[in-house]
Amino acid sequence: MVYSKKDLLAAIDAVQNGASVKRAALDHNDPRTTLSDKLHGISRIDERKGPCSIFTPEEEAKLVNWVFTCSKPGFPVNDEQLLISAGKYIEELKRENPFTNNVALN
């Protein structure tokens, strides 16, 4: 289920103003268990599950821009090219490369 932080905050506000967790989750398109976990302090509101991102939002935006730039003249980037390029980008940034053989694996 895809939900936004804005929806999650609205659902939390609804519960704090008397709505049930189930009703707030349905009204704001949030997973009920996620909403409950946030309300009970099991996970922080600004925290996402899963591994930390390797790239900053700005670095991710540069990769996305590169993909779109390549695609405009008719040269779409395939999965393999993107994974290799992500590994090369980490090297350019002179940061520790967490990828096996310097290639991001999906």
From TrEMBL:
GO terms for cellular component: nucleus. It is found in: Nucleus. Its main location: nucleus. It holds the Pfam family HTH_psq. It comes from the Eukaryota. One of its GO terms (molecular function) is DNA binding. SUPFAM superfamilies: Homeodomain-like (SSF46689). InterPro entries: Homeodomain-like_sf, HTH_Psq. Residues 7-36 form the HTH psq-type domain. This is HTH psq-type domain-containing protein. It comes from Bemisia tabaci (Sweetpotato whitefly).
